[in-house]
TrEMBL record:
Ranges for region Disordered: 285-313
Cofactor requirements of the protein: NAD(+)
Record's keyword terms, sorted: Decarboxylase, Golgi apparatus, Lyase, Membrane, NAD, Transmembrane, Transmembrane helix
GO biological process, alphabetically ordered: D-xylose metabolic process
Protein EC: 4.1.1.35
Subcellular location: Golgi apparatus, Golgi stack membrane
Region of the whole protein represented: 90 to 432 of 440
Main location: Golgi
Native organism: Rhynchospora pubera
Topological relation to the membrane, as annotated: Single-pass type II membrane protein
Lineage: Eukaryota, Viridiplantae, Streptophyta, Embryophyta, Tracheophyta
Chain intervals with Basic and acidic residues compositional bias: 285-311
Function (record text): Catalyzes the NAD-dependent decarboxylation of UDP-glucuronic acid to UDP-xylose. Necessary for the biosynthesis of the core tetrasaccharide in glycosaminoglycan biosynthesis.
Protein's name in the database: UDP-glucuronate decarboxylase
Every NAD(P)-binding domain range: 31-324
Length: 343
């Protein structure tokens, strides 16, 4: 329609920075796949707050209506139960493509489905972006670096991924999704953006999703021992969700394709993380060692120089500041409102 042409031209002008800041901006129509999930729902909040119209497409595999229910009834919000593995016709200006389970427990549950989501699902969303001329942002992952031989990881590093292991459905799936994204960019002239997200935590994570921060926090709150896998000396770098959402939006609005590492360079061993959780929740919380999972990356820490330079972005919330915000949310969800006044 004329409106579509008009609006995407408007967007291109706006995004290219040709319209002076302060000029009233017309809302965009934005598709967020996986928008009922942990990261997606926080992104949706920011987009709605900014005045955009948001369509969420989600199959509720790991997402929950509770995460977006506060937007029900808002004419700028629409929720579609749909699996991205199936084609869909929509008219939008931008696509944030997040649909894919992120916790190892969830993505290993049905590995073939994980690959289909990453490959066929991403292909469909790219096809949609091509048809309507929308800008497309892929949420890839630090997992594309596998068990990295370079530390910290820079975007130019090609990674060390086992193609036939139990994590491959996710790692190779995301690598293929990156390839598809670049091929649509080169072949169909599509405007694309690629984010490589490092471990992110915050309110609305699934309480029992098996990821380390959610496990430790839920365990400490329930007075269960925190389960440290392996010797606990492996490292991760933990980013608070609002920092990630800010990075994703800057990436989408900016003029660089990427890929960009989006993560907090603060690196912790799992034993150090357990200590932070003890300090935050319960100094007497116990630790219990369990065998580690197969192909677990030994260390991971983003080099974020590129994002700093080209997006003017860096995370603002260190682990010791972000963790209490997540703990409040978990306490309420585990014990009910009553529990939030505890300790
Ligand atoms: P999440 O599991 O909370 O959210 C994923 C959402 O996608 C859920 O709402 C789920 O129901 C939906 N979904 C899954 N498969 C789908 C399908 N086939 N069709 C439609 N919807 C589907 O995970 P998250 O932490 O919010 O992660 C969001 C994105 O960010 C994912 O693509 C993930 O790979 C990426 N990422 C996250 C992290 C992190 O630490 N959270 C790290 C790296 C990358
Ligand atoms: N697709 C979709 N919605 C659209 C346009 C395309 O889901 O609005 C799907 C389409 O069904 C196809 C994929 O995206 O499976 C790739 O589409 P493209 O047009 O790039 O390739 P082709 O259809 O020629 O294979
Ligand atoms: N881990 C742990 N205890 C748990 C869950 C995970 O020690 O209860 C470890 C896991 O072995 C890995 C790290 O924490 O070394 C991060 O795991 P997670 O599943 O959170 O994310 P990943 O970075 O592996 O995708």
């Amino acid at each position: 329609s004329l409106d579509l042409v008009h609006r995407s031209t408007y967007e291109r002008t706006f995004v290219a920075g040709k319209i002076p800041l302060g000029l009233k901006r017309k809302g965009l129509r934005i598709l967020v796949t996986g928008g009922a999930g942990f990261v997606g729902s926080h992104l949706v909040d920011r987009l709605i707050e900014r005045g955009d119209s948001v369509i969420v497409v989600d199959n509720f595999f790991t997402g929950r209506k509770e995460n977006v229910m506060h937007h029900y009834g808002n004419p700028n919000f629409e929720m579609i139960r749909h699996d991205v593995v199936e084609p869909i016709l929509l008219e939008v200006d931008q696509i944030y493509h997040l649909a894919c389970p992120a916790s190892p427990v969830h993505y290993k549950f049905n590995p073939v489905k994980t690959i289909k989501t990453n490959v066929v699902g991403t292909l469909n969303m790219l096809g949609l972006a091509k048809r309507v001329g929308a800008r497309f942002l892929l949420t890839s992952t630090s997992e594309v670096y596998g068990d990295p031989l370079q530390h910290p990881q820079v975007e130019t590093y090609w990674g060390n991924v086992n193609p036939i292991g139990v994590r491959s459905c996710y790692d190779e799936g995301k690598r293929t999704a990156e390839t598809l994204t670049m091929d649509y960019h080169r072949g169909a002239n599509l405007e694309v953006r690629i984010a490589r997200i490092f471990n992110t935590y915050g309110p609305r994570m699934c309480i029992d999703d098996g990821r380390v921060v959610s496990n430790f926090v839920a365990q400490a709150l329930r007075k269960e021992p925190m389960t440290v896998y392996g010797d606990g000396k492996q490292t991760r770098s933990f980013q608070y969700v609002s920092d990630l959402v800010e990075g994703l939006m800057r990436l989408m609005e900016g003029e660089h394709v990427g890929p960009f590492n989006l993560g907090n360079p603060g690196e912790f061993t799992m034993l150090e993380l357990a200590k932070v959780v003890q300090d935050t929740i319960d100094p007497n919380a116990k630790i219990e060692f369990r065998p580690n999972t197969e192909d677990d990356p030994h260390k991971r820490k983003p080099d974020i120089s590129r994002a700093k330079e080209q997006l003017g972005w860096e995370p603002k919330i260190p682990l010791r500041q972000g963790l209490p915000l997540m703990v409040n949310d978990f306490r309420t969800r585990i014990f009910g409102d009553h529990g939030s006044s505890e300790s």
